Amino acid sequence: MARGQPQLHEILTELVGEGVKVYFQPPDDITMTYPCIRYERDSAETQFAGNRPYRYTKRYMVTVIDRDPLSEIPDKIAALPMTTFDRWYAADNLNHDVFNLYF
Questions:
Q1: Number of domains in the chain
Q2: Does residue 58 lie within any of the structural domains?
Q3: 30 inside domain
Q4: Could you tell me if residue 72 is inside a domain?
Q5: How far is Cα 5 from Cα 75, in angstroms, rounded to an integer?
Q6: Could you please report the per-residue DSSP string of 35-52?
Q7: Per-10-residue mean pLDDT for the chain, 103 residues long?
Q8: 47 within domain boundaries
Q9: DSSP assignment of 58-103, as one string?
Q10: For the chain, which terminal residue's Cβ has fewer other Cβ atoms within 10 angstroms, N or C?
Q11: Nearest 10 degrees: CA dihedral of 47, 25, 88, 68?
């Protein structure tokens, strides 16, 4: 059975626990509370065998947004399978740790 976005949402929610919101592709008019995780579908990878698609894996861009520059949340995300760190940046006095997660 293929894993999907609802399972990923559950994994992220359980990983960070209460007090940290997890948002999937939130609309622009939503007010996010921090710390939080914001994630969205970003890309996908297709592997071929015999010129036919053999495996199709969706990639999600997962962004941890926190006021605390020493937050432990990015470390928890980095420990997930098939996850790589992409970049860090600061905006509006918030720290953004961006990861690519294949799921």
A1: 1
A2: yes
A3: yes
A4: no
A5: 21
A6: SEEEEEEEEEEEEEETTE
A7: 83 94 94 96 93 92 97 97 97 97 94
A8: yes
A9: EEEEEEEEES-TT-SHHHHHHTSTTEEEEEEEEETTEEEEEEEEE-
A10: N
A11: -140
